[in-house]
Amino acid sequence: xxxxxxxxxxxxxxxxxxxxxxxxxxxxxxVRVAEQADPSNPLLRGSTARQVVYVSxxxxxxxxxTIIPYHRIGRNAYFFFALNLALLVLVLFLPAIRxxxxxxxxxxxxxxxxxxAKLTYIxxxxxxxxxxxxxxxxxxxxxxxxxxxxxxxxxxxxPDLGTTLLxxxxxxxxxxxAGAKIRHLxxxxxxxxxxIFFPVPRNVTGESxxxxxxxxxxxxxxxxxxxxxxxxxxxxxxxxxxxQISRIEGWLMQPDPLVKVSRDKGFQLQNSIIxxxxxxMRGQNVLEQKNLYFRMLPDEHTxxxxxxxxGEWGFLGCAGVMLIYMAIFFCGTEIAGTTDDPFGRxxxxxxxxxxxxxxxxxxxxxxxxxxxxxxxxxxxxxxxxSMLVNCVALGLLINVAQRRPVLLGPKPFEYGNRVSxxxxxxxPLFEWGRGRKG
Amino acid sequence: xxxxxxxxxxxxxxxxxxxIVGRLAHLxxxxxxxxxxxxxxxxxxxxxxxxxxxxILDRRxxxxxxxxxxxxxxxxxxxxxxxxxxxxxxxxxxxxxRGRVREIRNSEKVSAERAEEIFERRCERTWELSVELTxxxxxxxxxxxxxxxxxxxxxxxxxGGPIREENLSHAxxxxxxxxxxxxxxxxxxxxxxxxVRPSHRRWYPRGHDACHVIGLLRPLTGREGRQARTTxxxxxxxxxxxxxxLPGDRVGSVGIERxxxxxxxxxxxxxxxxxxxxxxxxxxxxxxxxVHLTIDIELQKAxxxxxxxxxxxxxxxxxxxxxxxxxxMASLPTYDLNTYRREYDRLSRDQVRLPLWDRxxxxxxxxxxxxKPLAALTGLSTGAIKPDTHFYCRGYLHxxxxxxxxxxxxxxxxxxxxEVVGALERSCNVFFYNVGEEIRxxxxxxxLGKFGFADKPGTLLPGERRGxxxxxxxxxxxxxxxxxxxxxxxEAEVTSMHVANAMATIARDGQFRSPLLVRELKNxxxxxxxxxxxxxxxxxxxxxxxxxxxxxxxxxxxxRDSEIKICGKTGxxxxxxxxxxxxxxxxxxxxxxxxxxxxxxxxxxxxxxxYRNPRIAFVVMVEYSETGGGPTCGPIGREVVKICRAMxxxxx
Lengths: 438, 652
Known about the structure:
The structure holds 2 protein chains of 2 kinds.
Chain A: H1 3-10, H2 14-37, H3 47-67, H4 70-75, H5 77-93, E1 104-106, E2 109-111, H6 113-129, H7 142-156, H8 161-178, H9 182-197, E3 199-203, H10 209-215, E4 221-225, E5 228-234, H11 242-253, H12 267-278, H13 287-296, H14 305-338, H15 342-366, H16 384-402, H17 432-437
Chain B: H1 2-30, H2 32-43, E1 44-49, E2 56-57, E3 63-76, H3 77-81, H4 87-108, H5 112-134, H6 138-159, E4 169-176, H7 178-186, E5 194-203, H8 211-214, E6 217-219, H9 222-233, H10 238-243, E7 250-252, H11 255-259, H12 261-265, E8 269-274, E9 279-283, E10 291-292, H13 297-310, E11 314-320, E12 326-332, H14 340-349, H15 372-382, E13 391-393, H16 406-409, E14 416-418, H17 420-426, H18 429-439, H19 441-450, H20 478-486, H21 496-507, E15 511-513, E16 527-529, H22 534-549, H23 556-559, E17 567-574, E18 578-582, E19 592-598, E20 601-609, E21 616-625, H24 629-646
Parallel strand pairs in B: 2-10
Antiparallel strand pairs in B: 1-8, 2-3, 3-4, 3-5, 6-7, 8-9, 11-12, 11-21, 13-14, 15-16, 17-20, 18-19, 20-21
Helix pairs in contact in B: 4-5, 13-24, 15-18, 15-19, 15-22, 17-22, 18-20, 19-20
């Protein structure tokens, strides 16, 4: 009677599930810390309870994502992707919330299509790359890039720079894993770097001093040419907002956290480093320390939650979280290595790449290794969409793991002459739907 | 290939997480202690505890100035600033507006559109009502609003980011009384972002009385504000920071308020605590101490009223002879200290009456004949004349073209042969021309200096001016100048307080004491005996007695009192007419001296009473008088002495 259950559990990678559960617990605990730290803040009131609900929803999403065979999802990948693109377009026409068109307000909760886009994008890309090898030619890279640029552009105009920037590492990683030639990828990167750092002169004659002062810090050169005042700076700086420029500037300055800095330059970075550092080995579990969080961090329960973990549980907590992530990556790699199905492989590496990029950027920005962008820490930050998406992504990871086959032939994308001698035996190829039919 | 690339991925994972953990270890384990200390510092906050400025009291303990509780009408910063010009400002403003509209929706139970309408109407109504209810003019309100916005923006620039003040209310109409506050409070619902909060304000219960003495407060100037800010940031001890100023403070600008700033101000307290409410340490606020003046405000008022009644401008000073305390120093015209700011334009523009000038210590007049007793004392003490030296007055000194006696202009015969007492009694110029010539200029200036004429009057008030005496080295005609100086003309110019103090010195048997105005500053009083013998003093006093009480005395008809034996000396000093500055080329700047607006002589009556065992010394000065010192100031002087007696300053 429970035979199907037995087969359901057979291929599951338990460490991933344990790690995910641990992250969820840490998430609820640290959101609770943030809530306790600032009981007077109406925005934070009841956020622990809400996070518990989000976690439960995430678990449900995770289970669903493990039950439906990933091929069945993959078949509809383009459809989901198109639907998501439609949502991304729709969201631009909805009223702005907090000055950006990121959320669709559904009365009880707000859906963030850009979060969903991470997932559908990976599905669509994996589905596209599945049986091809055209991306091994330089111009064959065009289609995957177009597939990326469309959602990236839509997300960029929301604006949500963080999510936009997330798509590209994922794309590169998936292409890399799918076997695209490294020199092609390097050429693309080189071209992108040239475009990004291309010096663009800008005539600032007659501009107000404040505008010039805003543009000056990151400029290559500033001076007069033929009686006109020019600022030569990297191309994106011309369109970047003042606060973005000053964030990058603050990051480049790497202000000494023990010296007071002005509020608009590296202030958040400085505060987050102080809080992180003040945790010490075991953290400071005192009320005062909690007070520090809401006094000094703007989004302590979402973007800067890692600083709270650092302050509350110290080095042990922080390193522990890192180890948990590391466990997920190792087990994920193992799943990617043992699955035979090309779509499954790409799906897993996509999920892993997405997670890794998010973790590195978020943690990096908390400790001053990366400029500050609005990026959530997967599975830990407060927020429903992010939690659900990451749970579903891990669900898909497990989904692939459950359906790992017995490997007999050479593996896909192994283009070398060397024939892998590995043949790992897992249980019989199981697909739930098919099994029930039979 | 795929396997290999998976290994690459794993290496990337391991390396990047190692980097992160390494950085973590650096931050938390190596530098952790340092950051923990810094975090602890950030959690400690310092709060300034307010102090209360001391009161100013008169000699009987009546309050002349104090911090009175009152109410400020405040408006929200967003109301004052409006939507602003930058995108961020506009966003913040919109957010605030949405909040207010939501409040209206919730309280009035209306639709969103209706709530916005109500909001708009209330916004307009706020300005109308703030004018209507508080009684301030539109201009004043806009000016204070502008100042508040400018102040906040300056702070914002300094901090380099959003500050708390941008979300707070700022006082727009300060100093409302309770009735108005209640009235405004009742209608706050019709306005947006308006509030009334308790505050305190310097209040001068006596209004006009002794306005020049008490003085005023003013806000810190820009330079002082900047200096205060740098001091606050500097490394000096916290105590000295707390006793200093901070931007936004008010400090004494004139009068006692400025003189006793250090006493009155007190010092703020400072409380260091944690955000959890635990107090780490606290420096108590030291309230400003009260300042006790030697002035009797009722006496001062009564004396000023005499001048007001007669419609004359001038000064009356009364000194307590034994101690040198100032009992009254009235300068006319006066102004109301409480409405000074509002009336400042009118007051400062009045170039004819010059109400802001303190005629007791800040304005110098030629002393005229009131200096003759000093000249006599100088002559006697230096041996230039003997008590029985006679000079003959025929109406002029040597020839009728110059150096006349005052009788000359009235077509009266000269005084004839006079010795010191008679010359004082009749105020004979010719006698004193001779005396001045005998003493010589240098010695005369030196001796007037001993009477304090070369220094500031000595009350220590900020506006005091030195007496002006001819410089013996630079005078072209020392003989003529010496003659003129002996009758108080020429280059000599002194304040009323100088003259009063000289009279007190004579009455005090030749002991010089600088006038004492503030009890707390008694240790700064200068006391020095003058090298004058009692014999000479007796002679001069007799002369002064006869001025009032002998039928041939110049003040006999005007100042004699049947009950009190007043000694005095009249004076009628020729004075430059007062001219006003005018704008001839119409560029808005006053560039030329215009026509004379005040002409006449400075009329004096200075003396002491009673004759034996003097208690008070007084001066009555009327500027630009039509008639001489006797007829103008004599009756006033008598009145002054009578009032002082009635108030009990003579029979102690």
